[in-house]
Give the backbone structure.
Amino acid sequence: PGCAPHYEALAQCLLEMGEPEAAAAEAAEACELAPDWTAPLLTLGRASLNAGRFADAVLSLRAVLDAVAPQDSDASAEVMSGPAVHDAATSASQGWAPLLDAVEVEELRQDLSRAEQLLLQEDERELVVNGARMTIAQWRIG
């Protein structure tokens, strides 16, 4: 408890095991403990995407992309990683280190695009509320 790198590592394991809801919960805990650390935010975005929580995925993935490449898409992007679980003392003394290279940033952009597309598709589905037909997007607006 109270150790963001451990929550992040657990979230990664759960995501790999096909447990995106549990992974999202652990990643969210890591985000709360280390709000300036974007690695668990990236994990939260990907877990939310896999769990079908597309709005949450878009928010998290967009925040990571804004942090790593805020204005210049050609800039070398960095996700700040926290201390590694297995080497916390060394990493802590060195501070945060870059985690994403250009290929990984492109994967992040693709994940964000996929989440946005799935959210739009979800918003276009129809439902019936008190006998009135409307899309989910119309229902959200009120």
